[in-house]
Amino acid sequence: MIDFVQMTVSGIAVGSAYALMALGMVLIYKASEVPNFVQGEMALLPVFIAYMLIYSYGQSVFTAFVGALAFAMFLGCFLEFAVVRRAKNPNILGLIIITIGLEMVLLGFVSWKFGADQRVMPFPISSYSSVMFGNVYISTLDLLTLVAALVIMVSLFLFFRFSRLGVAMKATQQNETAARLMGIRTNRVKMITWGISATVGTVAGLLLAPVFMEPYMMWDPMLKGFAAAVIGGMTSLPGAVFGAYIVGIVEHLFGGYVSMEYKAVVAFAVIVIVLCVKPSGLFARHYVKKV
């Protein structure tokens, strides 16, 4: 029983990082109805920028992290403004290809600029320290990731519920034409959405970097975040979070009781099962167009 609880707690901790990636993907999908496969690399580059600020320019960890988050906001806005918006009447497949192309460009740039060597981001909290709750332990870094994920979830809820920009984003996501007629600058709203998405993903990257850093470090979290978003519903922020915790818990239980070798593919098996039962995801509504 203790092993089951331990694996569940570890799954929740890992699921928090997946939740941050899933939230970023859902934000962009709600704005453009396109899965954003550059989500991981929009976090990867700011993480390496933080590393460069610390080692090349002697900045503190706090200053480097704040600079990385600010750069992530700029990067997300820039990619939407300079690339995505310039596509001429693209269809969904075209936009997906654009995000995959941007992913390859950013990944190639990080590999060229910083190399493929593994490294570790300096962090005030050791990745080896842990906290005991009875007979169950959790890494201090995982606990911080869980707290950060919860804070961001609550912040996004309050942002969409009470801020003018959040309401404008919801209006744009629901009906872009009507929002434009009401005076909302929908292009600007989309650009800010990309910036917020990149910033949320960067938080996950910065919390993973004290364990290991290399150019492909965000692929697994991005894929698991995408799986979580699909399971919960690509238009539901609470669903994305719930899906992320499902993925984290199920893959840890599968790895502990069945096989560690196939642990990585469990998330996608869960996707198949959920989509067979509920195509829109667990928390999203399925709309059928009638002509």
Task: Summarize it.
With 291 residues, the chain is mainly α. The chain has one domain (2-277): ABC transporter involved in vitamin B12 uptake, BtuC, CATH 1.10.3470. The protein has eleven helices and two strands.
Explain what this protein looks like in three dimensions.
There is one protein chain. By secondary structure, this protein is an all-alpha fold. It has one domain: ABC transporter involved in vitamin B12 uptake, BtuC (Orthogonal Bundle). Helix content is 70%, strand content 3%. It contains eleven helices and two strands. The chain has helices at residues 2-32, 39-55, 61-84, 92-114, 140-162, 164-174, 176-181, 186-208, 219-232, 237-257, 266-277; strands spanning 130-133, 136-139. It has a two-stranded antiparallel sheet with strand order 1-2. Helix 9 crosses helix 10. The longest helix has 31 residues, at 2-32.
